[in-house]
Write a structure and sequence with these properties.
By secondary structure, the chain is of the alpha/beta class. The protein contains 11 helices and 10 strands. It has 2 domains: 231 residues, Rossmann fold; 46 residues, no CATH class. 25% of the residues are buried.
Length: 380
């Protein structure tokens, strides 16, 4: 009863109740060409509205849950939430002529976004903050897109790198102090041999990619570097494909232990895919039956022409992949002389030996003779 009635009941920390924070990093593929292709089935405005419901559900699961959202554009990756605190303020206040910057953050002055958030009484403040930041940043990104930026593929590798960097930063922020005032326990940090033990115990992180375009073969190397870094840090990468064939993201989900789903046949059901397939974190999925992939496309892109190949040549030193034999049989990455053996030589044709026929003696082993021992009579 003392634990319920006394002040000890109200001073429990999140760690005492086993509430481990969860960080969800979302990467939105904002390729204008791809969204224009499915605009009649799922406009980007409805997709963002469904995604905001998914984000709010994640934040509502726990007070310590966090979210970060990026936009993967055809030529760059942009933060949608949280935004840089200095970029927008400098762009609004700087007049470009070298004069002093107008101070709009003093004397109780607020910008339009802060005023809108403070005046919204029908929405949870954190939900409103995330929604306003996403819509404002996304509108600014779309307005700044020029016709020269309209490429058929998206640079997802840069967004994955930014997501991993942010997760690493947040994991360090949630780490316990590495020193202790207790002489008997001078350190509380995990062993150096397991660098992911602290982040795994204090923060559950995962990456979710909303893809609408094909994988760019030229981005195979940086994408795989980010995927293997996420696998080493035990960060699953989930992917929901609404359009196109993201081969590399399918491999990323398989390597990192994430979930890959394709909704190309029914993109209108985006919210159902999000809520039932991707809302549970890595710990909750251990108690659930998660969707699995029937088959995984493990094709790689060659290092010489950036083409996705089924069969290629692999350097035994640096594991570079080539769709054809390089010039002078030298690896284009490390310069190692490739030992091709007898590759390309015409095979030697050996004539087939004819089988010898067995001799027939007195009808043994052959046809029975019908003639007589005497010769044929001659008429005289």
């Amino acid at each position: 009863m003392n634990r319920i009635d006394a002040s000890e009941h109200y001073n429990e920390s999140p760690s005492a109740t086993n509430q481990i924070p969860s960080l969800l990093t979302i990467i939105i593929d904002t390729n204008p060409r791809a969204w224009a292709a499915i605009a009649d089935q799922l406009p980007i405005s409805k997709a963002i509205a469904n995604l905001l419901v998914f984000v709010n559900a994640h934040l509502a699961f726990g007070n310590d849950n966090h979210v970060a959202i990026l936009a993967a554009h055809p030529n760059r990756a942009v933060w949608l939430y949280p935004k840089s605190p200095n970029t927008d303020r400098y762009s609004r206040n700087s007049n470009g002529d070298g004069q002093d910057v107008e101070m709009t953050d003093v004397d109780g002055q607020q910008d339009g976004e802060s005023a809108e958030l403070s005046g919204s009484a029908n929405k949870y403040p954190q939900f409103a903050q995330v929604e306003t930041s996403i819509l404002t940043s996304l509108r600014s990104l779309i307005d700044s897109t020029t016709p020269s930026d309209l490429n058929p593929t998206t640079l997802v590798s840069g967004a994955l790198t930014l997501a991993l960097s942010y997760i690493h930063k947040m994991a360090h922020a949630f780490e316990p102090s590495k020193t202790s005032s207790d002489p008997a326990n001078p350190t509380s940090a995990p062993p150096a041999s397991d660098p992911t033990a602290a982040s795994a115990a204090t923060l559950h992180s995962r990456i979710f990619v909303l893809s609408v375009s094909d994988s760019e073969p030229a981005q195979y190397i940086p994408t795989m570097n980010a995927v293997f870094a996420a696998s080493h840090a035990r960060i699953p990468i989930d992917t929901l494909s609404l359009y196109g064939t993201p081969t590399f993201l399918q491999q990323a989900a398989f390597i990192t232990g994430g979930t890959f789903l394709s909704a190309a046949t029914n993109p209108r059901g985006l919210l159902s895919y999000l809520m039932f397939g991707f809302l549970a974190d890595a710990e909750a999925r251990k108690s659930l039956i998660t969707p699995t992939q029937d088959s995984v496309d493990f094709r790689a892109a060659c290092f010489c022409h950036r083409n996705v190949v089924d069969t290629g040549f692999v350097c035994s030193i640096c594991l570079s992949i080539f769709c054809e034999v390089p010039e002078n049989a030298e690896c284009l990455t490390c310069g190692t002389k490739l030992a091709l053996g007898n590759y390309g030589a015409k095979p030697a044709v050996v004539p087939r030996k004819r089988k010898k026929k067995k001799a027939r003696v007195n009808g043994v082993g052959g046809r029975e003779e019908t003639g007589s021992a005497t010769g044929t009579p001659v008429p005289g």
